[in-house]
Amino acid sequence: MSPEPATSEAREALARLRAEVGKAVVGQDQVVTGLVIALLCKGHVLMEGVPGVAKTLLVRTLSHTLGMDFKRVQFTPDLMPGDVTGSLVYDARTAAFSFREGPVFTNLLLADEINRTPPKTQSALLEAMEDRQVTVDGESRPLPDPFLVIATQNPVEYEGTYPLPEAQLDRFMLKLTVPMPDRDAERAVVARHAAGFNPRDLVAAGVQKVATIENLDQGRAEVAKVSISDDVVSYIVDICRATREAPSVSLGVSPRGATALMATARAWAWMRGRDFVSPDDVKALAGWTLSHRMQMRAEAELEGVTTSAVLASVLASVPVPR
Fold first, then answer.
1. Residue 273: how many other CB atoms lie within 10 Å
2. pLDDT band of 151, cuts 50, 70, 90
3. What is the pLDDT of residue 125?
4. Which of 153-157, 179-183, 242-246 has the lowest mean pLDDT?
5. How far out from the chain centre does Cα 60 lie?
6. How high does pLDDT run on average in the chain?
7. Closest Cα to residue 286, out of 263, 304, 319?
8. 56-106: per-residue pLDDT in tens?
9. What distance lies between CA 286 and its chain's CA centroid?
């Protein structure tokens, strides 16, 4: 295989971005990496974490370092589809209806606590996520490029929530868990606030724009050139098929999940400075890309079996290409 060029302007810019986000958010390097992979793959992200672990700050900081538009929607039980996508508004001056864009017309949309809104409003995002457009009154309106939905949900509070259906879960390329920081990271957070850090003023915190949408486009073009052998393609397919045959699983990974794993493994290989995908790249991204696409049988859930445990067993059993 041809060697990867020693330097890549796009790769260096995105590496700076990851470091710049660290000026505002402490101890979430893995989550930042996942978000960068999603941007490279034009995929959407489901972030799960308890309140207070800087999910909103993380997304807002990421958009700031890339110079992207950012909007946040708090999903509530009374939120209507038009509140997300936009709607036709009557203008008395012109005696005509005009379209008023909703918050979905942005680069980064943070759908906060998406599982708190009814399915009708959840589904309003489906067309936007899949087709990058919104259709109102028979007219389709394209969304900006790049466009990324980052939805959050609270893993410990399920009262009054509407779990996302399998069809919508499958449209999220990655599911990232935002963990509680360790003691050193938490101490660093408190020390920053004691020194006057204001999470609502990123400029005062020294966070700068260090990458551009052009860098992102260049990175996407380079990721598309990362080669993947037939053996690794077969490895990805065998992993996904094995999830469907696992006795604890009622619904395994779909072919869409297999293509998502190929895309994320490619992006990860590129970020690591290689122009080919290895089986280790596939293993590294399998958890983020596949776990939310698997539905467990009720009896397996009662026994405490998790999708992570099943996926680990699958990865251990599927032969790795040499």
1. 12
2. very high
3. 83
4. 153-157
5. 14
6. 89
7. 263
8. 899 999 999 999 999 999 998 899 988 999 888 888 888 888 888 999 999
9. 14
3-class SS at 1?
Answer: coil
Measured between alpha carbons, how far is 59 from 71 in angstroms, rounded to an integer?
A: 10
**Angle of the 29-41 helix axis to the 55-66 helix axis, nearest 10:** 50
The answer to whether 19 and 228 are in contact (CB under 8 A) is: no
What burial class does residue 38 get, using C-beta atoms within 10 Å of its C-beta: 0-12 exposed, 13-18 middle, 19+ buried? Answer: buried
Q: How far apart are CA 222 and CA 264, in angstroms?
A: 13
DSSP annotation string for 182-247: -HHHHHHHHHHHHTT--TT-TTTTT------HHHHHHHHHHHHT-B--HHHHHHHHHHHHHHHH-T
Helix ranges (DSSP H) in 45-136: 55-66, 81-85, 119-122, 124-131
User: Hey, what amino acid is at 113?
Assistant: E
Q: What is the pLDDT of residue 7?
A: 64
